[in-house]
Amino acid sequence: MSATVSLAAASGTPGFLSPTGVEILFLLVGLLTLGAAITAVTTRQLVHAALWLVVALGGIAVEYLLLSAEFIAWVQVLIYVGAVVVLLLFGLMLTRAPIGRSPDADSGNRPVALAVAVTAAAVLVTVVVDAFRTTWIDLEGGAPQGTTDVTGRILFQHWVLPFEALSVLLLAALVGAIVLSRRGNGRNGTDGDAGAAGTGHGTGAADGGER
Amino acid sequence: MDVLDVAWRLLAVLLAFLVLPLVVGQAEHKVMAHMQGRVGPMYAGGFHGWAQLVADGVKFAQKEDVVPADADRRVFQLAPAVALIPYLLVLIAIPVGPNGMVGQVIDAGIFFVLAVMGVGVLGSLMGGWASANKFSLLGGLRTAAQLMAYELPLLLAAASVAMAAGTLSLPGILEAFEWWWVPWQIIGALVFFTAGLAELQRPPFDAPIADSEIIFGAYTEYTGLRFALFLLAEYAGIVILCALTTVLFLGGWHGPFAADLGWLWTLLKTSVLAFVVIWLRVSYPRLREDQLQKLAWTVLVPLALFQIALTGVVKVVIQ
Fold it and tell me: Would the CB atoms of A93 and B129 count as touching at under 8 Å?
């Protein structure tokens, strides 16, 4: 998907027929990211899928860097590669991570998933192309767009309300996770909390392999 | 001219990357030995066994590179590189002295350093999974659990310094540094150093490679050069952690005659911290896995949050 986006971005520039080095690099990294993403969802080897995901997420971080959004790029690496994928690998290794193919790990929802992915990609590409049709943003210019300073200012001046709303959402999710995991403990009969635990309907969710 | 400048900087970083971990390794040999009433290596190279690690390197290079039959070959072979290269990248961003003595000024330096350091742990995970060995898998699991627990206090402690300095750039933090930051940020410093030790899997946080329980954790099946690369990654990690603690909490190149001898101050503070790392290895018993998790979540995270609150309050008061 990002390759198409980058194509769209490139077509909006003045020099589409004579792209600069950065633009060529952007396209190549985009293709690599796309390839890694497709491999991640099509490979039959579970852990390989997670590792290809690392390549795809890292590729997106490189794209951010090329667009001079340095802060976002490092946050992408920190959160997705450093935390999410590690959590994913941890979960896989804790439950089932055979070396080699695992054909039973496939789901019958492939066509549906494909349809959803293609729809999402189409919508995103349409929106991005439509929004930035012929806009030319000079990344080399005087005011870099993606430095920490600029990002912080914009985030806490113009977007402070969505930012706070998101933080409340995350806090609610955190509290929910704690509640679910504590319920799981009570159900296993560790203490006299069983009465409260018995009322829970979502105990199955607490068995998600976190422990 | 510009290209030449960049090339020189990269060369200097590469040289530091090749030399400093070996110095720390040799120091560990000798310091551990003396603390345990031995003398350590004495023969290789003649003078107090200074060439012992070079000899070790030659030995590792001669060994056969074995890949277990059931292992996932490509992932197994890739893992040491994934473990080592992030530390090389991090070294680029660490300022050594004043007036631009840094490989590359990175705007969001703290984020870059912590993000890339976190990637290195993927190497252990890959090695642990791909070895097709239960001990390796257990080691990998412990590594992942440890990373997830200690990444948070590490980040929070670093964020406290960033708040104090008002910038995320490492040279920028040193520019803003004042001596009274050391007592002000001391809790953060302790949390950062402890969590960093845990992330490097150094004793007393070495449950992922606990040799008496799970052989050598994720590195059990590795031999020869690939094993040496994992060891090198550990020592490079010590250098990085100590240098980062120096830069963030101890004022980096600040000290008497900083304009001329700034780099010496950085090196000195880093080596003192590296000595402490070795000292801890000799003096503390290994923490059990549940103690490890408990320490991270019930001690380090609250302490780090307290430090952030303290930083915020002081920052508001002095403005």
Answer: yes
Q: A74: nearest CA in chain B?
A: B112
- CA-to-CA distance for B138 and B133, rounded, in angstroms? 9
Q: How far is B70 from chain A (nearest CA, A)?
A: 8
For chain A, 211 residues long, give each residue's pLDDT as a single digit of tens: 444 444 444 444 455 566 677 778 888 999 999 999 888 888 888 888 888 998 999 999 998 888 877 888 888 888 888 888 888 888 888 877 777 777 676 777 888 888 998 999 999 999 988 888 777 766 666 556 667 777 888 888 888 999 999 999 999 999 998 898 887 655 554 444 444 443 434 333 333 333 3
What's the rounded Cα separation, in Å, for the pair B157 and B310? 12
Interface mutation vs chain A, best among B70, B77, B92, B119, most A CBs within 10 Å: B119
Residues B229, B156: Cα–Cα separation, whole Å = 30
Q: Is B284 helix (H, G, I), strand (E, B) or coil?
A: coil
Distance from the Cα of residue B69 to its chain's centroid: 33
Does B167 contact A148 at a Cβ distance shorter than 8 Å?
yes
Q: Which site among A43, A51, A62 would you substitute to test the B interface, given the most B Cβ atoms closer than 10 Å to its Cβ?
A: A51
Tokens of B100: 């631009």
Set out the domains of chain A in order of their start, with CATH numbers: 2-143 (1.20.120.1200), 159-211 (no CATH)
Respond yes or no on whether the N-terminal peptide bond of residue B204 is cis (omega within 30° of 0). yes
Distance, CA of A152 to CA of A163 (rounded, Å): 11
B132: left (phi over 0), alpha (psi -120 to 50) or beta: left
